[in-house]
Amino acid sequence: MVTALYRRYRPDAFADMIAQSQVTEPLMTALRTDRVNHAYLFSGPRGCGKTTSARILARCLNCAEGPTDTPCGTCPSCVELARDGGGSLDVVEIDAASHGGVDDARDLRERAIFAPARDRYKIFIIDEAHMVTPSGFNALLKIVEEPPEHVKFIFATTEPDKVLGTIRSRTHHYPFRLVPPGPMLEYVGKLCAEEGVAVAPGVLPLVVRAGGGSPRDTLSLLDQLIAGSEGDAVDYERAVALLGYTHGALLDDVVDSLAARDAQAAFAAADRVVQTGQDPRRFVEDLLERLRDLIVVGASSPQAAAAVLRGVPDDELDRMAVQARSFGNAELSRVADLVNTALADMTGASSPRLQLELMLARVLVPAPGAEAPVPVGAGRPEAARPAAEPAR
Ligand SMILES: Nc1ncnc2c1ncn2[C@@H]1O[C@H](COP(=O)(O)OP(=O)(O)OP(=O)(O)O)[C@@H](O)[C@H]1O
Ligand SMILES: [Mg+2]
Ligand SMILES: [Zn+2]
């Protein structure tokens, strides 16, 4: 049994953290210039590095060569606090979800009085801090305000608003953020290379999208894809199926048929969505995302579009450029608006399939005055296309 990717790649030093420089840079500066506070609050979405950073901060503070912004990695404290180390006596992690009561807080208060067993500081990491009860927080108030010289507190939480205000105001608060697609894509790309896994073009952008900006979720998905692949190669078909996205080829069909006002082909594609057991709502979401990509492609040079739509393979970019041209910019934005409205209407709709088909019908009706000249630069090759008719 191999350990999960996100555990094997848990950063051990601030320099290895991605996309949280608003936190790591000031912390590293404070460590270098010996201006470390006695209490910190790390907040932000799940899986973005709060617990990891709390451990790194503890490692920096207690390194025998420290306090330092880059732990030496070889002293006993650094070894114990490394990702596969056994943990240190002087760094106490408390899971407030199960130990957030007033008795736990009193117990912590008593432990804090004693000097560290070996290292510079006794560091308390209070994880899931929003779960500390009000009386638990009140019991901690005094010691968090004026802890003994040798004590540091690090609170980590997804819900900083639930941390008692009087505690919060005694800490330095650092907000973590979701990781943007660019750095995340680069990170998973590097990681696949390190793992020796070959990933088909177009798969990593899907993984990044599905991970929603959380490194942990993204790595978990990648892990699952790798685990389910033959011979260290992740292929596109399996990834799309597992992640539940619409296959690029199906999206191409729908988009082409809408651009050509080919009703028959559009409804046939919608039928394929339903027959393959895909959620119509997810399909409409993917279609909207594709239309947005087409708007970007239609409005920018190929290089600029490639930079915005990171990770899209070149052949797909070429196909999208053709699609964008055959719609024209004005028509693209009209269609995107219709699809967007349909998506909103689909929430809780009793028949999503029906909503999907009605949406196609609306899109297929030409805009009023559509035959009028398209604005300059909209680049529709043949100004007037036959309004609707079966090409196949
Ligand atoms: N900024 C980051 N850079 C690199 N890897 C990261 C980053 N953030 C998270 N990870 C990865 O995600 C895993 C989980 O991170 P961590 O436990 O620190 O998240 P968290 O913010 O504490 O989440 P939760 O709110 O669920 O407790 C780490 O083991 C690491 O692999
Ligand atoms: Mg955590
Ligand atoms: Zn060290």
TrEMBL record:
Top-rank taxon of the source lineage equals Bacteria
For this protein, the record's SMART domains field holds: AAA
UniProt entry tagged with the keyword Metal-binding = yes
Keyword Nucleotide-binding assigned: yes
What are its E.C. numbers? Answer: 2.7.7.7
Question: Which residues lie within the region annotated Disordered?
Answer: 371-392
Q: Which InterPro entries match?
A: AAA+_ATPase, DNA_pol3_clamp-load_cplx_C, DNA_pol_III_gamma-3, DNA_pol_III_sug/sutau_N, DNA_Rep/Repair_Clamp_Loader, HLD_clamp_pol_III_gamma_tau, P-loop_NTPase
* Single Gene Ontology BP annotation: DNA-templated DNA replication
Reactions that this protein is recorded to catalyse: DNA(n) + a 2'-deoxyribonucleoside 5'-triphosphate = DNA(n+1) + diphosphate
> What are the AAA+ ATPase domain coordinates in residue numbering?
36-177
Its keywords, alphabetically, are: ATP-binding, DNA replication, DNA-directed DNA polymerase, Metal-binding, Nucleotide-binding, Nucleotidyltransferase, Transferase, Zinc
One Gene Ontology cellular component annotation held by this UniProt entry: DNA polymerase III complex
Functional description taken from the UniProt entry: DNA polymerase III is a complex, multichain enzyme responsible for most of the replicative synthesis in bacteria. This DNA polymerase also exhibits 3' to 5' exonuclease activity.
Query: Quaternary arrangement and interactors, per the entry?
Result: DNA polymerase III contains a core (composed of alpha, epsilon and theta chains) that associates with a tau subunit. This core dimerizes to form the POLIII' complex. PolIII' associates with the gamma complex (composed of gamma, delta, delta', psi and chi chains) and with the beta chain to form the complete DNA polymerase III complex.
Stated name of the protein? DNA polymerase III subunit gamma/tau
What is the protein's species of origin?
Answer: Agromyces seonyuensis
